Amino acid sequence: MDIYIGGNFTTITYNNDNQSNSNSNSNSNSNSNDNTALRYIARFDSQTQTLTGLDGGLDGPVQALYCDQEANSVYVGGDFGSPVQTPASNNGSTVFGKIALWQNNAWTALPWSGFNGPVYTITPNKKKNTILFGGLFDATGDGQYYNTNSSQIVNLGGSTTLGSGNGALTAGLGNPANIVCSNNTLPLPDTPWLLQEGVPGYWEATFAYSIQPSLFRISNTHYDGRGTNSFSIIALGSNEYFELSYLDPVTQQNVICSKECHLSNDTSIAFQDFTVVSPYITTGVRINIDSWFGSGGGLASVQIFQSDIALHAHLGDTNDGQCTSSITPSTTIVGNWVEKYVFGTYQNFLTSTFSASDLATTDASILYTPTIFFVDQAVTEDTRTLIYSGFLSATTTSFQPTVLLNLAANATAPSSGTVSLVATSLEFIKNGTGVTLVSVLEYSPQNYTQNIVPSWRPLTEQLLHGSTVRTIDASQGDVLYIGGQFVGINDIYRNIVAYDYLSSGGQLRPLNEIGLTGNVTCLQLVDSNLYVGGSFNSTVTGTKPLGNVARLDIAGNQWVPLEMGLDGPVESMFLSDSTITFSGSITRIVNTNSTTPTSVGNAVWDITNNKWIDRSSQIVGTVRLITSLSTDTTVNNKIWIGGIRSAQTYLASGLASLNLDSIWSPHVFGNDPDAVINTGLFWHNTTEPGTNITVLIIGGRFKISDKISNLAMYKDSEWTGIGELDGEVRALTLLNDKLLIGGEFGGRFYDSQPKSFAIYDLIGQKNVDTIGVYGSGGHIGRINVIQVSGNSHIVNVGGNFSLAGSLECPSVCSLNTNTLQWDKVAQNLQGQVYDMTTFAGRLIAVGDLQVNNQRTYIAEIKDQSSIWTVPTEIQSAELGIPTTLLSMPKKVLIAGSNATSGYLGTWDGTKYTDLGSNLGPSSDIRQLLYIPITSSPNDDRFPADSEDMLMVVGKLDIAPFGNVSAALYDGSNWYPYVLTSQRDGTPGTIQHLFHESPCCTVSNIKRHLPVPAVILISIAVSLGIIFALVLCALCFVFIRRRNSARHDPEPMPPWASGRRASTLIAMLDAAQLGVLGATGVVTFAAMLSAAVAKRAESGPDAPVSEDCPSLFYAKYPFDAKEYGELGFGANETIIVTDMSDNVWWMGYKDDGSGKPASGLFPSNYVSSTKAS
Q1: Which residue intervals define the domain SH3 in the entry (predicted)?
Q2: Which of 20, 191, 453, 1054 is deepest in the core (most CB within 10 A)?
């Protein structure tokens, strides 16, 4: 199947990647985007999924397409002149003019040689077997229907005097004659007429006779980025401004102007026509240029037209026009003539005077050659002396009629003296007697093929001159519905009207309440209901608000609103199944109901249920068509076509979870367009015996309802607010069933008034009164990070503040959660802390900082020191502001961005090493974590001696992929993993990944990855990820543990500061313990029981593995000194799962709270028998 795509484009970028593996990070590190040079129209092959051009394309935008499948042809309409390549002839016609036919892989002209104005709609009338063309035109290229305004061109050569004011001083570019004969087709000429830089000016033409301009055709210059913006045209002598009408190429609306008209700076527009609304008779015109693009104004071409041609004889040459490539009016003089100016007439006359005796022999004559393109009607008599009235038949394609003015052969000579012949002007008037053409033409291909006349014709009753037709619905056959921008005689209809073929041979019929108050752009008849879209707010005489969309109940002749409509103009609509998609400059559905879907660029109306609905996918931008690429209705393989800015597979307003069956379950928030979720965690409520209730807690800046905002918990399928905080929550941490809350907020928190820090007792469901943090001026401070230290009742907070209560404790401060007392961590630090971690006995803080009034991005405390210092080993000024940290074995990973790039690098305490990540400057890294990997295109891992990769989240600018919200990095290659976008189509940002159990930090890196963990991550990566998207499509990823035991954050390795608690990625119960035969609560006892049963089943000689673990017992205590090691005491039970290394084994033990902890340990520290 071929799909034809038309519009205003010259290049299309598309992706031809047909791979559908959901585990996208392990497919390929290649990008299949391709840029294809096209001109305004393309063909999409659904089999190969490639785009190709149509024989070079067209020279202007495409506005309408109609595919005639029976004739295997495509009718194309728009605002173009012709195909780029040499077209084929259609019965001798090679003139296109806004329409073209694509047939047999070649362009063909329509038989009437096109129109003189743009075509906006092409609609078949199946019942009449005709095709309707609608737009803004009143003439055909064959002259059968014509526009008198542009029928005769004024000769700007010969006796016309050209001039300019403030013309360019550069040689050749200030000559006003440059633009009177230039070609106004693309590409425009290389030598335009320019003004001097930075000053206004004018171009003018003065004639030796009077003219009455009816149309100005002007081409803008784009020379060196210059061009005219605003201008006006005056009639010299009277200095009256011409009132002009033109089509705005951006809005496609008719505009009336006089003192400030505008030329487009679009290089794809060859020229613009400005029709004179109030004609003046003048002997000269001046184009004043008042503003410009680039460094100055200028023009590429000027043509002046008038309705009828008056030929004036002049001396000096043959009076031919300078534009020799076109047919222009001219006069040819024979004999002795003198040109005289006659006062009162304001024009010149030619006089030939000779002796009366020479009357019979004089050769004085003037040959008048007017510009008559087509003459096929009789000339009617007017008030002037009629020389000839009749039909003139063209003998050649370049035929011009001529009239010879000379002395009559039977002239009677006077008896003496002289004879004077006076020549003034000769008028040729083309006056048709047939019907006019106004913006709608009906064509019968069948009549044309069978040579039946007429094959094309206007409607029997026409719209008024100047009407614009945007859309036609011909579904009923005998009745057309026409929409656009027009009014009827005496305002009996406006912008929408019906045309009845059966009424008196064809009549326009007004609709109820006269019509609509604004432009109608699209119509769709569904049964007995006509759906209408455009730019209107009500009917003409009605009072119901319509909001740019409406439904006309044809049977009841009543207008019905679609709720309260849309907030912007509708450009198109299409029917799909039982819905209608409206597209245009819309951002939302107008409704006071907070659950009404937010929509940018398009909105979906459910015809059956009469309401607005949301898609399951997020599509941002205008949608012109959705069609299936497969004839198999069971296959969901569709293509979306339009001005689409962003397309994401899943849409969620708030939070959405994806289960193992790949089914999305959204948690719908209210429509808060500015909502952001910054952080989240899980709490397991085990207060009731035998219960384990999973509670999700989120914080940010959002509003779920009038009573729930910024901090909320989700349990038992309901959202519950925690306090009434005003501002933004940025950090959450769990500690002994207490929720620690940080951010930048005030408001009320039950019976307290917190200042950016609060504690909530989850068991008692009450606040713990705590002193907050403040800035130096007494305003509330900001907390970005909360970490639990090695001492489990001490937490460190970092952010931008000066005081904790009354204690001077800038940027980093510690809180004893037992005594609720703040304490200073160290001296000399100020600024904004974004993240903290510990490494090699140091506390590291990153952000926009000052140490001893010296600006730095990284600060540290060494060996329990009380003073912050700047690491001299890192030239932090060259890095840019770091945003996050992650500990590595023997190193720390630092991420951030600067003016030129995003960066990733490692610091080992003495040396900083850039990882060469090649991130673009728009990158905004929010978080780093380690993800175990089963397979990838190569064997690289990060860290190098692990089975992990680094997952980077935020907003990443990765070449050649573009914007990515989460990606895996193996130290050399990027693997895009999650793409998100906001509701307006701009790239989204993953704020944070949060989890339940320990995962994805340096302590979880496994150099020898066990089988269950591989299965776990494989399931997690391909199926088990749960996305939490805020309303503006910010995305958070977590994997949900079901029925897990309560989990408090692990203490950090000794220094005194804690790592971020329970806010990364978690393990799935089914994947983690299902392999071992355990279900339900995740406990070490359950693992132990499953291991014993599996060993008994497999036998004592079965190899040890995750599928078949073995029990060992500690002979000696082992103190874990490195991340990833498993420390234990003597006689502790160890479940060994990996013995592949002779020195280091892997296993699990009870962590002291009944939950399993895993890690590496030396094999000689354990025994298969328990010591007595």
Answers
A1: 1107-1171
A2: 191
Using the Cα atoms of residue 1049, residue 1053, residue 1058 and residue 1064 in order, give the sign of their dihedral: negative
Query: C-alpha dihedral over 196, 197, 198, 201, to 10 degrees?
Result: 20
Judge contact between 702 and 1031, C-beta under 8 A: yes
What is the DSSP secondary structure assignment for residue 1097, as one 8-state letter?
Answer: H
What is the distance between the alpha carbons of residues 240 and 258, in angstroms, rounded to a whole number? 10
Helix ranges (H only) for 107-181 are none
For residue range 1051-1079, list pLDDT tens digits in order: 322 322 222 222 222 222 222 222 222 23
The model carries a pTM of 0.65
pLDDT at 1157: 85
pLDDT at 399: 64
Which burial class, exposed, middle or buried, applies to 239 when counting CB atoms under 10 A from its CB (0-12, 13-18, 19+)? exposed
Q: Which residues contact 1120 (CB under 8 A, 6 or more apart)?
A: 1126, 1127, 1159, 1161
Q: How far is CA 883 from the centre of its chain?
A: 29
Which residues face 926 on adjacent strands?
none
Long-range contacts from 560-569, C-beta under 8 angstroms, 24+ separation? 562/605, 562/610, 562/612, 563/589, 563/590, 563/591, 563/596, 563/611, 563/612, 564/589, 564/590, 564/591, 564/592, 565/589, 565/590, 566/590, 566/599, 566/603, 569/519, 569/521, 569/534, 569/535
Decide if 254 contacts 275 (C-beta within 8 A).
no
The strand pair at 1035-1038 and 990-993 is best described as parallel
**What backbone phi and psi angles, to 5 degrees, belong to 754?**
-70, 155
Of residues 779, 810, 780, the one with CA closest to residue 797: 810
Among 521, 526, 517, 640, smallest CA distance to 572 is for: 521
How do strand 1144-1150 and strand 1133-1138 relate by DSSP bridges? antiparallel
**How high is the pLDDT of residue 1038?**
24
**Residue 459: how many other CB atoms lie within 10 Å:** 21
> Which of 204, 217, 203 has the alpha carbon at shortest distance from 168?
203
854 beta partners? 851
Query: Could you tell me the two tokens for 258?
Result: 């006089």
Q: Which residues contact 166 (CB under 8 A, 6 or more apart)?
A: 195, 196, 199, 200, 201, 202
Dihedral angle sign, alpha carbons of residues 489, 493, 495, 497: negative
Helix (H) or strand (E) holding 800, with range, is strand 794-800
Say how many C-beta atoms besides its own lie within 10 A of residue 428's C-beta.
22
3 state DSSP class of 1004: helix
Could you give phi then psi for residue 1091, rounded to 5 degrees? -65, -45
- Contact of 669 with 706, CB cutoff 8 Å: no
Q: How far apart are CA 629 and CA 396, in angstroms?
A: 51
Distances (CA, A) of 569 to 394, 470, 871, 984: 49, 14, 58, 16
Could you give the CA distance from residue 135 to residue 439 in angstroms, rounded to a whole number? 5
% helix / strand / coil in the chain, to the nearest 5?
Answer: 5, 45, 50
CB atoms within 10 A of CB 62: 24
Residue 210: which of 282, 134, 122 has the closest Cα? 282
Rounded Cα–Cα distance for residues 580 and 591 (Å): 18
596 vs 107: CA distance, rounded Å = 47
Segment holding 74, helix H or strand E: strand 73-78
Residues of the chain with confidence (pLDDT) below 50 = 16-35, 317-322, 324-327, 371-384, 594, 658-662, 664, 1007-1081
d(CA 550, CA 545): 9
**Predicted local confidence at residue 173, as pLDDT:** 92
The pLDDT of residue 995:
65
At 1001, the amino acid letter reads T
Residues 478-515: b if buried by 16+ CB within 10 A, e if exposed: ebbbbbbbbbbeeeebbbbbbbbbeeeebebebbbbbb
- Residue ranges of alpha helices (H) inside 895-1030 are 1011-1019
